TrEMBL record:
It is found in: Cytoplasm. Residues 7-20 have a biased composition (Low complexity). GO terms for cellular component: cytoplasm. The lineage of its organism: Bacteria, Pseudomonadati, Pseudomonadota, Gammaproteobacteria, Lysobacterales. Residues 1-36 are annotated as: Disordered. This is Bifunctional chorismate mutase/prephenate dehydratase. It catalyses: prephenate + H(+) = 3-phenylpyruvate + CO2 + H2O; chorismate = prephenate. The record marks 298 as: Essential for prephenate dehydratase activity. One of its GO terms (molecular function) is prephenate dehydratase activity. Its main location: cytoplasm. Catalyzes the Claisen rearrangement of chorismate to prephenate and the decarboxylation/dehydration of prephenate to phenylpyruvate. The keyword Amino-acid biosynthesis applies. It comes from Stenotrophomonas lacuserhaii. The gene is pheA. GO terms for biological process: chorismate metabolic process; L-phenylalanine biosynthetic process. Its EC number is 4.2.1.51, 5.4.99.5.
Amino acid sequence: MARKPAKPASPKALAATPKTAKPKAKATKPAKLETATSAPPVLADVRGKIDQIDRDIQSLIAERARFAHQVGKAKGKLAAAVDYYRPEREAQVLRMVVDRNEGPLSDELLVHVYREIMSACLAQQEPLKIGYLGPEGTFSQQAVLKHFGRSALGLPMASIEEVFQEVEAGNADFGVVPVENSGQGTIQITLDMFLTSNLKICGEAELRVQQYIMSRSGHLEDIERIYAHPQSFMQTSAWLRANLPNAEKIPVSSNAEGARRARNADDAAAIGGENAGHVYNLKKVVTKPIQNDADNTTRFLVIGRSLFPSSGHDRTSVLVLIHDKPGALFDVLSPFARHGISMNRIESRPSHHGKWEYGFFIDLSGHIDDAPMQAALAELEGHAAQIKVLGSYPVAVP
């Protein structure tokens, strides 16, 4: 017999038929993140890694010092430490430090570290002797430490004139002198010294200047007289008018000298930096700096007996004495404009060669050996009574 065809399943039966289950997708676990709930690192392991890094750093510093000594040998037998010092090379090294820096430490901190390493390496030959406006504790001393490091030997002098004299005589290898302040302008005595001195500018340093009022007792109501350098009185004039209008203001040769005097009486105070307060055991009368300008900065010049090669980012300072005639200043400045040389600063001072005759101190971008600079100065010769190149030196590393 023929088999009957099967009846199609009813919709109800189809609904009752179990479906083949699809495989469930495997849940993806989130990536493990370093969070506050993660297991903290083992302190001993972290310290062990730091110790190994310190050993590596110390080994590399020692290796650098050995190579620095080899550089000294390669230069041959030289007369003194000053003959081994190359400011243009130091500037190049520090700029590379800044260019390589990707944090987390600041450029300023790394520059300071490398400056000290280079200072110590150079001192293997013999420490540099650096004259500065003393006594100990002045901003000039801080500028010496910033530019030359703590391995240099600082020689405090009684005046800016004496710094020039000691460098000229060879008793100091270099000198550091203030030249201008961002708020109060030029230190005139420094420019006047260049009118007669044959020394050259070999470098520059910029120092943030924080002025404090300090005394032996530390109490504002005790103060009847204040010692400070005249520049510091000008830089803090607003605070002094508001808080000590009746106190006697006694100018001295340096803020450190003022601090030295103020330590002897409770009714005396001094204006200066924290370093001077530490040296002469003075207390801050107020905790905050008192200068008018929060960004108060002083520029210092490094003076020596020689010119140095280009560092690649330099400044040239010249002194130009002009004839007294109409358009004389235009004749002085136009050659630099024609040769594409930027002028950073110009300052006039009496020339001391004749009544109403002036010299112009001009800071220019570039090195004296650059072709545009040479061309501009050659063109200037026909318009100036005298041209004196004061120095070509690396621009301060920020």
